Automatic annotation (TrEMBL):
It comes from the Eukaryota. InterPro entries: Endo/exonu/phosph_ase_sf, Endo/exonuclease/phosphatase, RVT-Znf. Residues 4-208 form the Endonuclease/exonuclease/phosphatase domain. Gene3D superfamilies: Endonuclease/exonuclease/phosphatase. Residues 447-537 form the Reverse transcriptase zinc-binding domain. This is Ribonuclease H protein At1g65750 family. GO terms for molecular function: catalytic activity.
Length: 537
């Protein structure tokens, strides 16, 4: 398994998401923890989709600071234990591995609030007995070896953080790679470098994962697809017919090899200069001469420009292809350039009672005992049982094609009276055409998303225990403020984000009421069942 922790310093930064894609492409993480996102949870959902992660949980930023996010992929599943503006605490499960606890931590950056960070660590250590790992930006260091600068770190801060770590029974995981994770005033006489980001774990967690390593990651780059490149089709055709391989597997192997090499060359248009910048940054990172610092800053700026330029290139390229295909309304242009593009296909339509029926043509395809072909509203199937010898009968066997009528003698013999009456009402007008499926909720028999939506909403309203009796217009006509009408409508439709409702929608959280912890937090419980609510009323 692989985890990434990153202080992104604002996901609104144009280079933040491309850099995050670089890291994902290089390290293939199962879980990502982000701090200082500086965005709301709504924006995090868009980013989760763009990164192709299965689930996420986010803590909103406070103005232009703070903000946390945790994203994960299957087969790992993160279940929320609790959260705070400075941590996200979850239990991590895997179908084949023991459960353990992960905390994404962001320490208070203000020195006068460091004690609050230490107390948070102690609180989290007592909160659960599972094997525990903490990752994130602690905004603290354990010793002066974690700092490079003219002024040593205050002793009281070092001692306070060390004591908090010891009280929490955490072990610092050694860092591989560059020793420092944060830099301030680069190129000036007061330049400071510190190791603020770290991972720590309890001994039980280290015993469970003895081969765990902590690496100071260097962002690579994200690689977009070349699926719509004009040179791809000729390449595949030439590769497929070259060599005259008799076996299709050999042809596929040859074609795959040529495509890999072609794609590598295609990516070099950006990869070569980006890799050169990255190598230069690694060489200059530990040099502090003024000339070297200037070169470092120039390379850093050049790398950011190249990443942004590459992102723009693929977005514009995808936009061209998407517009060429005729869709001028969608904003998801970049998905067209992704090599992991997924196609959404309607594989089958589920037959709902009375909504899909078969329009009888020549009757060769319709099985009268299995298929929905009756015209009675809500009763499309026959109720008769097939007599012996008629199990494989088709509708065509029940039709007199010479006269264009039903074989009434046969129908009266093998069907009950209810089915006989229903069959006699079915006209035979298209005996020279094939049988077709028709959508019974449309006069023309054609399916539409609109009619299906109305069907689903009607079903939900009919089955909802919270349905408001009578017409909804009575609610909207009440002489109360409009926001109260919206609130009442949400309550009656069970749309309020209670914990029970959130859990039903797949949000990882406990369903217990946080006030009484005696029952599930449903909408009814919030206002009437909870003891705290009863005190209010």
């Amino acid at each position: 398994m692989s985890f990434i922790s990153w202080n992104c310093q604002g996901l609104g930064n144009p280079c933040a998401v491309p850099t995050l894609k670089d890291l994902i492409r290089t390290y293939h993480p199962d879980v990502i923890f982000l701090c200082e996102t500086k965005v709301h949870a709504r924006r995090l959902e868009d980013i989760r989709v763009a990164l192709n992660f299965d689930s996420s949980f986010a803590v909103d930023s406070s103005g232009r600071s703070g903000g946390l996010a945790l994203l994960w992929k299957q087969p790992y599943s993160c279940h929320l234990i609790n959260y705070f503006p400075h941590f996200i605490n979850v239990s991590v499960t895997h179908p084949k591995k023991p459960t353990w606890r992960l905390t994404g931590f962001y320490g208070y950056p203000e020195r006068n609030r460091r004690k609050d960070s230490w107390d948070l660590l102690r609180y989290l250590a007592q909160d659960n007995s599972l094997p525990w790992c903490v990752i994130g930006d602690f905004n603290d260091i354990l010793s002066n070896q974690d700092k490079r600068g003219l002024i040593e770190h205050p002793t009281w801060l070092l001692r306070g953080f060390r004591e908090a770590v010891m009280d929490s029974e955490l072990v610092d995981i050694p860092l591989e790679g560059y020793n420092f994770t944060w830099t301030k005033s680069r190129g000036s006489p007061t330049q400071v470098e510190e190791r603020l980001d770290r991972a720590m774990a309890t001994q039980s967690w280290l015993n469970q994962f003895p081969d765990s390593r902590l690496i100071n990651a260097v962002a690579a780059r994200f690689e977009n697809a070349w699926l719509d490149e004009p040179g791809l089709s000729p390449l595949v055709e030439a590769s497929w017919h070259r060599g005259h391989f008799p076996d299709i597997l050999d042809r596929l192997k040859s074609c795959s090899k040529d495509m890999d090499e072609w794609g590598r060359q295609l990516r070099l248009r950006f990869r070569a200069p980006i890799d050169a910048c990255r190598r230069q940054l690694l060489e200059l990172r530990e040099k502090h001469d003024a000339n070297f610092v200037s070169a470092f800053l120039e390379a850093q700026e050049r790398l950011s420009t190249l990443l942004a330029r590459e992102e723009t290139f693929w977005k514009q390229r995808a936009k061209v292809y998407w517009l060429k295909n005729g869709d001028k309304n969608t904003k998801f242009f970049h998905a067209m350039a992704s090599e992991r593009k997924k196609k959404n296909l309607i594989q089958r339509l589920t037959k709902l009672d009375g909504t899909i029926v078969i329009c009888i043509g020549n009757g060769l395809r319709i099985k009268p005992w299995i298929d929905p072909w009756m015209r009675q509203q809500g009763k499309p199937y026959v109720t008769s049982l097939p007599p012996a010898g008629y199990e494989e009968t088709r509708i065509a066997n029940l039709i007199d094609f010479e006269n264009g009528t039903w074989k009434f003698d046969l129908i009266n013999r093998i069907f009950n009276q209810r089915d006989v009456d229903a069959i006699k009402d079915i006209p035979l007008l298209q005996l020279d055409e094939a049988d077709t499926l028709t959508w019974n909720l449309n006069r023309k028999g054609s399916y539409s998303v609109k009619s299906a939506y109305y069907l689903i909403m009607e079903s939900l309203l009919c089955n909802s225990i919270s349905r408001l009796p009578g017409d909804w217009k009575k609610l909207w006509a009440l002489p109360i403020p409009h926001n109260m009408k919206i609130f009442l409508w949400s309550l009656l439709r069970d749309c309020l984000p209670s914990r029970q409702c959130l859990q039903q929608k797949g949000v990882p959280c406990t369903s217990l009421c946080p006030h009484c912890e005696a029952a599930q937090e449903s909408n009814w419980h919030i206002f009437f069942g909870c003891q705290e609510a009863q005190i209010v009323w």
